[in-house]
Amino acid sequence: xxxxxxxxxxxxxxxxxxxxxxxxxxxxxxxxxxxxxxxxxxxxxxxxxxxxxxxxxxxxxxxxxxxxxxxxxxxxxxxxxxxxxxxxxxxxxxxxxxxxxxxxxxxxxxxxxxxxxxxxxxxxxxxxxxxxxxxxxxxxxxxxxxxxxxxxxxxxxxxxxxxxxxxxxxxxxxxxxxxxxxxxxxxxxxxxxxxxxxxxxxxxxxxxxxxxxxxxxxxx
Length: 220
Fold this sequence. Notes:
Blueprint: E1 3-6, E2 22-25, H1 33-36, E3 41-44, H2 48-61, E4 65-67, H3 78-84, E5 88-91, H4 97-112, E6 120-127, H5 137-146, E7 151-156, E8 162-169, E9 174-181, H6 185-200, E10 206-209, H7 210-217
Parallel strand pairs: 1-2, 1-3, 3-4, 4-5, 5-10, 6-7
Antiparallel strand pairs: 6-8, 8-9
Helix pairs in contact: 4-7
């Protein structure tokens, strides 16, 4: 599997620890159609704006893409665009397999929260000072999975890889669901897993959420 890696930052560089046939594209090796077309799959950990600018050329290659880029908005009807081009992309705000489990727990919480007549829900996320977007993509995904109004607060400090805490508080008790990323390797490992999956399985064309792909793989 020949991988085109867009971005060799703190997380992108970790991809090199899990895959061998990788060509890195950055400011000194600018990704072009002619270069990207030689690879089997494209992995991106670029900042959102940089990735967004490359979407036209990525579409032109018709190669599968696995992206963990955040802090941008997908083009309108992008899932339909991918279907028309007969190509599959996988995206994630967080490639941690542990977050797949967290999603399951949050969705279960949503199913039973009718038990709590008086409650407040909040999400607090903490990341390193170099992270540009806030709230984090993972925090926004957690709110989406919760399907309820929920305040999100953000904190930037030190070199924190990623800490997300969902708190449900009632007059009598507090319930917390928390995920802490200890090393960026786990995001790279999840992205390489997705790259293997998308190249070895006949996925339906379109834009697929990583968590949904893993859930389907595990028949959850």
